[in-house]
Specification:
binds pyridoxal-5'-phosphate; alpha/beta; 39% helix; single chain; 12 helices; 4-stranded mixed sheet; globular
């Protein structure tokens, strides 16, 4: 189906932060499959984990016990607020499970009237019906029938509306990305996240975090909400969890998941042995102190350098924002044009984003030398943009 607006680039091979097209051109890949290949392309540890598992067992269905699921779930729970995990194959399925878990919780509590889910403008929760209704971005919902009952959208930052949502007796949950990815690298202020936790506890509402993009070390802590020193009740994770292998996971406290009893949910492929083998290898790396330290070091350098470019190219760059290596550069020229210039003139791949942003989402193990190269290439693209703006 013609649903993608693809770059004219036939990719063939990758190694670390580098990507080669079929015609042999080398690119510096600061897209990373949109924050997914957190350890770069063809990471030897992940390749080895996949190869070993491929010769042992691919798939069995969840009617059997899959040891890799226990191992990865234990690792995730040991490093988070969560006590239980459901494995899916993608981010939007993890979100779907989170939404169902929240409603089922209130149902199990004898409050089936609590069905309302509040999301925020500029958010992205994937493309299932639940996902598009939770994010309520008109360009993703239009033409797909009536809005689903019980889904509401708040204006990002509208605290009064959020207060009313918490106080409503039919509210089930609020869902948000602590740091918005697609919507434009907007971070919810840490004090607001703490306030939300207090309000949720006071009114029996659940908090769902969608950390599909901002989680897994991307912001410099394993989970983006750690910066605020609070925790959600339910959290969707995917993208970097498999280092490029399709995985999603819905994490929850045992309390929040109490409605998710036998038969309430399921998946054929979710948590299959191949995904669990790669997921364990990826999680061990990404959750390591060395990687998280690297994210903070390189992010500090990149932010400083990009701010320098913003001063030098005020006709091209409006501002630099984001958290850790979820970095956004708001542009004056059209961001899609700029992505093409970066690709063709500088051999630099960057992702687009809402609010006319380009996002730099390099692998979390990017070296300082590679970051330097990214900045040089970004400057080349800015120079070229200037010539285009002049004509
Ligand atoms: C990418 C993304 C999703 C959807 O993930 P898929 O794997 O494409 O289904 C959901 N939420 C956020 C925040 C994302 O960035």
């Amino acid at each position: 189906m013609g649903v993608y607006n693809r770059a004219p680039l036939e990719v063939e091979r990758g190694q670390g932060i580098r990507l080669w097209s079929r015609d042999g051109t080398e690119y510096l890949d600061c897209v990373s499959g949109i924050s997914t290949n957190a350890l770069g392309h063809a990471n030897p540890k992940l390749v080895e984990a996949l190869k070993v598992q491929a010769e042992k067992l691919w798939h069995v269905s969840n009617i059997f016990k899959i040891p890799g699921q226990d191992a990865l779930a234990d690792a995730l729970c040991a490093r988070s607020f969560a006590e239980v995990v459901f494995f899916a194959n993608s981010g939007t399925e993890a979100v779907e499970c989170a939404l169902k878990t929240a409603r089922k919780y209130h149902h199990a509590n004898g409050q089936p009237e609590r069905i309302d889910i509040f999301g925020f403008d500029g958010s992205f929760h994937g493309r299932t019906y639940g996902g598009i209704n939770a994010a309520a971005n008109p360009s993703y919902t239009e033409g797909f029938g009536p809005p689903m009952q019980g889904f509401h959208q708040l204006k990002w930052g509208d605290k009064d509306a959020l207060r009313a949502a918490f106080e409503s007796p039919t509210t089930a949950a609020v869902i948000l990305e602590p740091v918005q990815g697609e919507g434009g690298c907007r971070a919810t202020p840490e004090e607001d996240l703490r306030w939300m936790r207090e309000m949720a506890d006071a009114h029996g509402v659940l908090i769902i975090f969608d950390e599909v993009q901002c989680g897994m070390g991307r912001t410099g802590k394993l989970w983006a909400h750690e910066w605020a020193g609070m925790t959600p009740d339910i959290m969707a994770v995917a993208k970097a969890l498999g280092g490029g292998f399709p995985i999603g996971a819905c994490l929850a406290t045992a309390e929040a998941a109490k409605g998710m009893t036998t038969g309430a949910h399921g998946s054929t492929f979710g948590g299959n042995p191949l995904a669990m083998a790669v997921g364990q290898a990826a999680f061990a790396e990404v959750s390591s102190e060395a990687i998280l330290q690297n994210v903070n070091d390189v992010a500090g350098y990149l932010k400083q350098q990009l701010n320098g470019l913003a001063e030098q190219y005020p006709d091209v760059i409006v501002e630099v924002r984001g958290k850790g290596l979820l970095m956004g550069v708001k542009l004056k020229p059209n961001n899609r044009d700029f992505m093409g210039w970066a690709r063709d003139e500088a051999r630099l791949l960057v992702a687009g984003g809402g609010d006319n942003l380009v996002r730099l989402l390099p692998p979390l193990n990017i070296t300082l030398d590679e970051a330097r190269e990214a900045v040089e290439k970004f400057e080349t693209a800015c120079k070229f943009a200037r010539t285009q703006l002049a004509t």
